[in-house]
Amino acid sequence: MSPIVSELGLFGVFAAGLFGATVGSFLNVLIHRLPRGESVVRPPSHCPFCGVTIRPLENVPLISWLALRGKCRTCGARIPLRYPAVELITGLLWALLAWRAPSLPAFISGALLISACLALLAIDAEFQILPDAITLTGILVGLGLSFLPGPPSPASSLLGAALGGGALYLLGWIWEKVRGVEAMGFGDVKMLGMIGAFLGPWGVLLTVLFASVTGAALGIILIALRRGSLRMPLPFGVFLALGAISVVLFGTGLIDRYRALWI
């Protein structure tokens, strides 16, 4: 049982989920504005169609979208389903992490990484870019959090960042030489460096394994359905995000088993 549950019971899980949904609202700002080169601070939240400022009561996660029936109060334009989906998923993942996290530092670190990965997943899926504002900032945050009690240690965090970024860059270089096509962008390298800073070397290796298997499986399915080819680019950041989130939530046992295969 996590310390959050032992100290606060189900209220702690509920509170984590509620705060996570609020963070999800901010993630929507990042997802919409960063790819367009806009400030995430100014102007205040507004309708992307008519530009009217969103009132505080209209910005309550999930509830406002339902109350407005998914439409802008002024122009009537439909608010994309992504907005409540990101808020709901972020809240649920934070609540699950609060239930499972072995310590408070692990919860803080995991919640930040999950949030960053969700934003990167949505941006990469739609725009095929991974903004430095998230990846490079994430590397610094991950390294800083390594000084809190619990794994990874500062040395392990630094090694994870170097291994994550370096290994993925090497794999991409080899693939480009063998196949003659670019396997992934440098954004993927920086994203995996961020993941390594949070999870350490074993966590980043498990993330790559998960991402490679799921990415290959999807590619095979698309080829079988004749909707893709070997040269079709896939947003690898999506699979890295899914892998990292899985490691955060279920990685303690998986990492121990993975290490046992090599040590």
What is Rg? 19 Å
Count the E strands: 0
Q: Note the main sheet.
A: none
Q: What is the count of structural domains?
A: 2
State the share of residues found in helices, binned by percent.
55-70%
Series of H and E elements: HHHHHHHHH
Nearest-integer average pLDDT: 86
Q: Helix/strand-derived class?
A: mainly alpha
Shape: globular
Distance between the termini: 28 Å
Quickly list its features:
263 residues, mainly alpha, 2 domains, 9 helices
Description:
The protein is mainly alpha-helical and 263 residues long. The protein has two domains: 100 residues, no CATH class; 161 residues, no CATH class. The chain is built from nine helices and no strands. Helix 2 runs parallel beside helix 5, helix 5 packs across helix 9 and helix 8 packs across helix 9. The radius of gyration is 19 Å and the shape is globular. 39% of the residues are buried.
What are the SSEs and their pairings?
Blueprint: H1 3-8, H2 10-33, H3 63-67, H4 82-100, H5 104-127, H6 132-145, H7 154-179, H8 186-224, H9 236-262
Helix pairs in contact: 2-4, 2-5, 4-5, 5-6, 5-9, 6-7, 6-8, 7-8, 8-9
Could you write a compact summary of the structure shown?
By secondary structure, the protein is mainly α. The protein is built from 9 helices and no strands. It starts with a helix and ends with a helix.
